Inverse folding.
């Protein structure tokens, strides 16, 4: 009886393992399409006109895959709502789309199902067969800590120059964009305007390096 149950479990796991890469790919595609639809809305642009499909698709894909390429100048084209959507896409792509729902599972003290664990393991490209939930929780915490620290430091430079509202928004956006190695900016000319400000460049550089090292490296360094 036990042997039959074990065989059934093995078959189930093998079948799920076969489907996991397809599920991960499908979720990425759906996130990109959802981001595309949101970025096409006229309410998220400064001109009040909708963004064409190809531009929105390219930018959404670039944000989710954190490449930083864009067919439009984000600072000139999108208002704060469009920039916010872009930032969410960057964050999802930067920390891994499965880390976020797992975070809410943990907060709600709910059991994470085996299928969710397997998708998480695949999305994080893990070889190990255990510890993925602990790693996801660690990813959320370390990402939050570094990004908040970076935003606070950048605020010392941006708030005096741009005012509280815009300065804080610029600080948050560029801290997340830098940490996720996304390459997007809200200045329209990258960081050219800060080429003579070592403090800003130093903070941005630290965030880029911290994010570029990868969560597994941080996990191994701190454990």
């Amino acid at each position: 009886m036990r042997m039959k149950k074990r065989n059934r479990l093995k078959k189930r796991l093998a079948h799920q393992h076969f489907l996991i890469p397809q599920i991960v790919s499908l979720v990425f595609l759906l996130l990109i399409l959802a981001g595309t639809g949101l970025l096409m809305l006229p309410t998220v642009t400064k001109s009040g006109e909708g963004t064409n499909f190809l531009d929105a698709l390219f930018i959404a894909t670039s944000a989710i895959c954190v490449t930083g390429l864009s067919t439009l100048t984000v600072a000139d084209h999108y208002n704060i709502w469009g920039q916010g959507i872009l930032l969410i896409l960057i964050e999802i792509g930067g920390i891994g789309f499965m880390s976020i729902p797992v975070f809410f599972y943990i907060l709600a003290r709910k059991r994470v199902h085996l299928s969710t664990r397997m998708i998480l393991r695949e999305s994080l490209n893990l070889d190990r067969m255990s510890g993925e939930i602990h790693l996801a929780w660690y990813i959320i915490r370390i990402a939050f800590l570094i990004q908040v620290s970076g935003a606070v430091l950048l605020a010392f430079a941006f708030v005096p120059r741009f005012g509280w509202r815009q300065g804080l928004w610029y600080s948050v956006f560029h801290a997340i964009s830098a940490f996720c190695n996304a390459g997007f900016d809200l200045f329209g000319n990258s960081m050219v305007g800060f080429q003579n400000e070592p403090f800003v460049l130093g903070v941005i550089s630290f965030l880029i390096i911290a994010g570029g090292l990868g969560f597994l490296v941080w996990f191994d360094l701190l454990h």
In short: Residues 1 and 7 are 10 Å apart (CA to CA). The chain has ten helices and no strands. The two ends are 42 Å apart (CA to CA).
